[in-house]
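Write out this protein's structure.
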Amino acid sequence: MLLESNKCGNRRKGGLGTAALALGLVALGFGLIGLGLERSSARGALPIRLVVPHPMAFSKAHPASSARPRPRPLVGVEPLRPGPLVRRYALEARRRRAVRIAAKHQPHSKSRATISLYEHTVRRSVLRRQGCRTAKRGVGGIVILDFGQPASNGHTYGTYLFSGRFAGNKAITRALLAYAGGYRYCLRRGSKLRVTLARGTSNYHPQVPSAYKAGRKWARETMDLAKRLRRRGLHIHVTAAAADDVEPAWDRSFHRTRDFFRGYRDARTGHLLYNYGSLDGGIGEIWNARQTFFVTSGMKYARVIPEIYNHAMAKQWAELAHIARRRYHRPVRFAGVMTTHTSRNRGMKPRDAHKVLVRALAERSGESAPDVPATMTNIIAAN
């Protein structure tokens, strides 16, 4: 019995010794941690938080002995700020993405361009045949009939045709009506094709007493054509509009071009005026950005169908679109593209011109680039 009691006493002493040893090790650990924190704070280093598990965590009976401690987030660590090189790469990536998105919106390979004409006559029989040929091609879109330089014969306003003869506004309206009749007559039965027929002129040295009155009369004749189309039931397939071949080199002072557009605007007909001109070297070469924007999108009824004959012209229009968005917070309102391709000059084809302009806009303005409808027209001299 004495022997058994001695054994129990030794067991109790052994258990107490083990517990004392564990508590001593824990105290020693906390002392080392405190010493390390003092040294690290003296050196200016970040404080490190060390989690010491409870001694009972190592017991086999503890249910959480096999669980791993959860990672704790670092406190006081600021994220890295992107440097100029990183920002440049990010901007380039966004531009490439915009180019890829723009490429998806290219016109289908079967898209065809309308044929616009430089007119030499206002004979209705000739214009009727022109409209019929357009219908037989099975093409819809915008058709611009350019009747030449604004002029006056002392009695009425009109234009000098490309043959050099004078044509009054009323005669031009009758010729456009004949074109619309020929187009409607030669369409296939049940066809849903439509054309926007635009009476075209230019800002080439207007030979008129008042450019303002010329613009106002041009708008009123456009409205008169729309009324005649409706009376004859042609409005289902033909819509009236106006157009102006605006080129800075033809009016370096900008005054007459501005007056023509203001006169057209003040007539308040609601019909669009398409600018199918060029920029002649780009913004600042002849006209400044405000002047150019006014005749392309700034005026209420203005839309632009830019001449895209090469890559340089596309870049000039892309620069204008970028400036308009940045300065005026307004987009350039594109309505399509114009080319002058023939088998002789081998110029840029309409689909290629549209593709080049869309890509130039995407590269310059990224995702904020304005849309360019897949409306294409190729202008040539009328036979």
